[in-house]
Amino acid sequence: MTVHSMTAGIAKLPTRRSPHNARRGTALLAVIPLAILMMSAMVAFVGTAVDTSRATVSDMDSFRARAAAQSAASLAITRIWGDFDDLSGGAAEMWAFRAHLDAVGLLDQADANRVEWVDYLDTLRLPQNADGDASIDGVRIDRIDAHRIDNWDSTMIVIAVDAVTSAGEEGSSRERRSSIEERFTVAPPEWNGLDFALLASNINCLLCHTTIDNVERAYNTNSALTGTFDSVRIGSIDAIHFRSDPDSSVAGITLLGRDALLGDGTDVTDWGDFNLSGAKADAFGSVEKIQEDRFGNPEFDDLLVYDPSNPDAAANLFLDFLDYQGATDYELPESFPPPFPDNGGVDPTSMLPQPENAGNRKIDDGEFFATVLGLEGTITGGSISVMDPSERISTNAQRKAMMDGSDSVRDITTGNVYLHGTEDEPLILDGNVAIDGDVIISGVVKGMGTVRARGNVYVVSDLQYADGGRMDRTFGVSSDGTENNIAIAAGGNIVVGDYYRPAWGEGKPATGESDGSFNFTMDELAIFNRMEWMKTQPTLPGKRVKVQTGTKVTYQDEKVKEKYQKTVTKWKWVKTGNKIKQPQFKWITVSNGLPGEYEKTERVKVPNGFKLVDEKIKVKNGTKTVTKTRWVKTGNKIEVKTPIYGWKTPQHDNPYFNAYHTPRYYSFTEGSTVPIYNRDGYFDPKTSHWMSEEHAGEWSDAKLTYANPKNQKDSVLYGANGVPKAVVSQISPTSSWISPEMMRKTIEQQLATKDGGNLVLEIDATLYSANSILGTVPDRESPFTNGELLVNGGIVAADVGILAPNGTTVNYDVRGARALSIQADSGLVIQRRLSTPGIDY
User: Fold this and answer.
1) Does residue 274 carry a pLDDT above 80?
2) Taking a C-beta distance cutoff of 8 angstroms, is the pair 654, 534 a contact?
3) Which of 46, 297, 471, 696 is the most core-located residue (most Cβ within 10 A)?
4) Higher model confidence: residue 830 or residue 500?
5) Is the CB of residue 426 less than 8 Å from the CB of residue 381?
6) Segment 218-253, tens digit of pLDDT
């Protein structure tokens, strides 16, 4: 019998993968041997050996017994997993697996004084020998017992087997016994979403003017390496929104899991109308490598949509990819696991798992503790301040003290952290650190490692590597040879630039309430909140239609039509001999003057001078008799029925509804209004899309639903019993530890310290959040930025909304993916961890 690799809930592994996908994290691979048949063959081979010396026979008997015991253990774990897989239907999550083991009596023995084993010998129903005993290839199996030990992030199944083989010389017999313990670990696999330069469930407003490239190629100065760089990939899981005039290039492939939409929700039907391009195939028709011209510039090609019925290796655009991804060489994850797994973690005191906290979409203390336990690293240099969670920054003096800080960060740090480096005094990152709080970071950084923040991360200005030479940059390497590589993961959100900035750069900054600007940040929150709201609704409102609601009955005088004769005056036009001016007009296109995607144009008619024409007047020209008609009453009454019409909003079944989904909504600050852009527009059942204007653009009761976190009767956020049924993630500093005024001043001051003359906002890092990555890079009324964003690393989050009206460049850096290992939140993988032989005798 062959034991197959036992995985569930994860996509088919690709048969061809780019080198940058060979991840170095802590992923558990399915390595249960696929070679029980090979074991059986070796057992049979041993049985035919011609050397019958006593020692040789003894060794062969021991080998046969041990091989049979290992086969029995593999069959047992196959049965344990197979029973669960059949019942779960492939929904392999740790809590479900443990609940199944509890149900079949395989209980957690982690704290048992005496381990209780579960007998699987009879359950497996192995073949019987002549004496009626269970056997494998002539080897008697006396015992197959199992027990379970739960760790916070995995479950270990221990299987003990006793096997006995009988052999003899000249008719005599003897027994050789082998006892083994096989340990199998069941755990989620490593998440593969960091293999993307850009990945999100929902991408809004980013792919208007974007270039996606490989960072190694972008900074390569060795012409001998031309054409050797791996292509990159971007992807969206749920929806990606395009303007009607996007201008973007991807030096690789684009995987769109489901919907590709225009701003109003309509499907993209003709990709040829867009100025979009993807990877150019090489001479062999493959897009695995980036093709370059003789000047080292990447070569792009028109979009070639993949056809599942006629696969083409040159395809660079995959639509509705989740419908057929198992048949391709690529993978697209279907969720965004938190950097601190939502499995309950462990109690820091007792070290016992806390499964009761699993799946609540919050980072519990036990989850943070269990994830970061054992991390080792430091951040030194630059300006560093570590503030106690109770500390508040509300005055200019306190803010200055924060920005002048001389602290350091080591291993696991509790508190909110401010980090800023300069070229003369860069931040020095050495290893992996965890911060139980928010992080403000900017400036120059040197070294390698990861920053895992339990709260939000604010990249308030440039975050650049201390690389050697700005003119001829050696990317990722300092002048002294130090490798530079930083990966940042936020348990909350990652916010780039000035998220308070008023709409159009004028008026009041955003506050999260109607007394402030409804700026780009608020617009993005409202759109992403609608996505979550939709998952909670069994039905969705359709387009309003006018329907007959009744009939009105009236009685009116009966009338008939009759003809009669009438004499009327005739007229004609005659010239007066004079000339008069007649106005002329023309049509022109007028813009509202707003930038980027907010610009709207219309055609208007304007004066365009005069021309001279003959003046004419109207004069009488006799009379004529005409026949006319008129209505006259008959003296009778008639009944008149008039339909009554009214507007009705139909309700349609919602394909996105999930009764078990815990929604995660965004608010601007703690306790502020949760705006949901769901009142302007409707659900189209034919396309399964929400149809509306691209942005709400204003605080409006006609467009937005307002959920109130402070009101326990709010039906969006609370159940009828007042218990929360949703999670609210704020994008402003946790518990307002720094006031909005001081936070915005910090942003403005750090933007003012950007590299002189460089108006492009540059971030050298891989950014990851299971929530949102938001950003604003203004170009209007901004002396420090020009509306361009450069990211050397990657942007990966559930929701991505970044406004860079003059263009975004993302150069994918595989090193960030290797540094920042994220555990998948669905799917389980089994690994044979340890095989311990007993005493053979």
Assistant:
1) no
2) yes
3) 696
4) 500
5) yes
6) 999 899 999 999 999 999 888 676 666 667 899 999
Name residue 315's amino acid: A
Token pair listed for 83: 């029973």
Q: Which of 262, 217, 254 lies closest to 237 in space, CA to CA?
A: 254
| Structure tokens, 726 | 């949703």
Cβ(240)–Cβ(201) below 8 Å: no
Q: Tokens 């920042």 belong to which residue?
A: 820
Cα–Cα distance between 72 and 78 in angstroms, integer?
A: 10
Residue 832 backbone phi and psi in degrees, to 5: -75, 110
Cβ neighbourhood burial of 378 (10 Å; 0-12, 13-18, 19+): middle
Q: Which two tokens stand for residue 332?
A: 């697209």
Cα distance between residue 203 and residue 195, in whole Å = 17
What is the DSSP pairing of strand 457-465 with strand 664-667?
Answer: unpaired
- Helix, strand, or coil (residue 76): helix
Q: Which pLDDT tens digit goes with each residue over 442-479?
A: 999 999 999 999 999 999 999 999 997 656 788 999 98
Distance, CA of 65 to CA of 778 (rounded, Å): 72
Cα atoms found within 13 Å of the Cα of residue 764, Cβ hemisphere only: 21
**Cα–Cα distance for residue pair 764/487, rounded to 1 Å:** 9
Q: Which residue has the tokens 């999930």?
A: 658
pTM of model > 0.70:
yes
DSSP H or E stretch at residue 135 = strand 135-136
Place of tokens 């000035």: 498
Nearest to 512 by CA among 369, 710, 309: 710
CA 276 → CA 271, 304, 317, distances in Å? 8, 11, 10
Residue 211, token pair as written in the block: 């270039």
Spatial separation of the C-alpha atoms in residues 836 and 186, rounded to whole Å: 18
What separation in angstroms does the CA of 119 have from each of 108, 162, 163, 182, 709?
A: 15, 12, 15, 15, 52
Cβ count within 10 A of residue 482: 18
Rounded-to-integer distance, Cα 773 and Cα 731, Å: 10
Beta strands in 542-600 (DSSP E): 545-591
Q: What whole-number distance in Å separates Cα of residue 173 and Cα of residue 165?
A: 10
Q: Pick from 375, 414, 409: which is nearest to 819 by CA?
A: 375
| pLDDT grade for 840, boundaries at 50, 70 and 90 | very low
Q: Are 720 and 301 in contact (CB under 8 A)?
A: no
Angle subtended by helix axes 740-752 and 396-403, to nearest 10: 50
How does pLDDT run across 600-656, given as a tens digit for each residue?
A: 889 999 999 999 999 999 999 999 999 999 999 999 999 999 999 999 999 999 998
- The number of angstroms, rounded, from the C-alpha of 337 to the middle of its chain's C-alpha atoms is 9
Q: What local confidence, expressed as pLDDT, does residue 357 receive? A: 87
| Torsion angle of the four alpha carbons 457, 462, 465, 466, in this order, in degrees rounded to the nearest 10 | -130
Chain centroid, CA 43 distance in Å? 50
| Range scoring the smallest mean pLDDT among 482-486, 630-634, 781-785, 834-838 | 834-838
Strand partners, 8: 828
Question: Tens of pLDDT along 31-85?
Answer: 333 333 334 434 433 333 334 444 444 567 778 888 899 999 999 999 999 898 8
* b/e 631-645 (16+ beta carbons within 10 angstroms → b): eeeeeeeeeeeeeee
Backbone angles phi, psi at 257, to 5 degrees: -60, -40
SS3 breakdown of the chain: % helix, strand, coil, rounded to 5?
A: 15, 40, 40
Helices (H), ranges, 396-444 = 396-403
Written as one letter, the residue type at 22 is A
| Helix, strand, or coil (residue 421) | strand
For residue 637 the two structure tokens come to 């009454």
DSSP conformation letters of 208-269: TSEEEEEHHHHT---GGGTT-SBPEEEEEEEEEEE-SS-EEEESEEEEESSEEEETTSPBP-
- Mean pLDDT over each residue of the chain, to the nearest integer: 86
- Strand duo 689-691 + 682-684: pairing: antiparallel
Q: Above 70 in pLDDT, residue 1?
A: no
